[in-house]
Amino acid sequence: MAPRGRVVVVTGASSGLGRAIALEFARQHSALVLGARGTEALEDTARSCRTAGGEAIAVATDVTREQDVIELAAAALDRWDRIDVWVNNAGVALFALLEQAPFEQHQRVIETNLLGAMLGARVVLPVFRRQRRGVLINIGSVLSEIGQAFVPSYVISKFGVHGLSEALRVELADEPDIHVCTVFPYAIDTPHLEAAANRLGQVPRAMPPVSSPERIARAIARLPEHPRRRLYVPRLAVLGLALHAIIPRTLERLLLDALRAWHLGEPSEDGSTGNLTGNLFEPGPRTDGTHGTRPPRIGTAQLFAWLAARLVRLEAEAATRLLHRAEVWLRRSRGGAAAVARTGELPERV
Description:
Layout: E1 7-11, H1 16-27, E2 31-36, H2 39-52, E3 55-60, H3 66-80, E4 85-88, E5 94-95, H4 103-131, E6 134-139, H5 152-171, E7 178-185, H6 192-195, E8 197-198, E9 202-203, H7 213-221, E10 230-233, H8 236-246, H9 248-263, E11 266-267, H10 300-343
Helix pairs in contact: 1-2, 1-7, 3-4, 4-5, 8-9, 9-10
């Protein structure tokens, strides 16, 4: 029986943004094929989708396993004989310096966030080509275009997701009805931070402005009707990226200071190094639901005021260093001129 709406596949659908995306498509009466490792939470998402007005089936899926991803697509084709939208949303995070965690943990972030998205694209693109239509939505991040401290493997993976979209658009340039959309959200109120592996010994909290997962999901659910190459949510994120292009070193220092003060300023309650493996290799403790439990430590207006004051201070420090270098150069130049006046010879260059 043909579904009333689109056939949509969503990975990482058991909680957080993936759950919100699934529910939003369900409200459009879509037929949903939901993939995630946590089967209990995934089944709960499927039930909620059916209540919201859609059809839904749950398929236990680890996106790092090619056969799992193949079976996820097969479930959609067996049930509805087509796939209209594929959302590469599954992702994990590791809070650790690059040299701090075992390399296999950094590798796992890359395998899940980037290679999982590549496997999803690899499986669904032949379907889209056969249909001559389809929408692939890759969930990137603002960190797909700007670095951030303390989550290096996550940043690398999200830059890779951006590159995946760019490469596929060229491959599909002669397929006008196949679209590749990349979503660049900023901070989202999901269980993402609670589920992440953490070796920093500090509790990470979102940095405002924080968007609700429902807001991001609504924007994503509009993409099949109005495909866009890039979607920034909120659009304010574009301003930060523009500033980084203008004053990169200053903005990077500003970001580092803000992260230390407001993102990781709270030590772990038990003094430990945190949840060492999080949900990297196993689903971990249930984090079903769409929202997290760690609100920001500072409001949006207060953070912007803090950033403005800190920016002024950083620019003043930079101006002082520049003036000092100019004074040193001037003294050396005067010293060289005096030597020439005394000896009539140019000083030797080292």
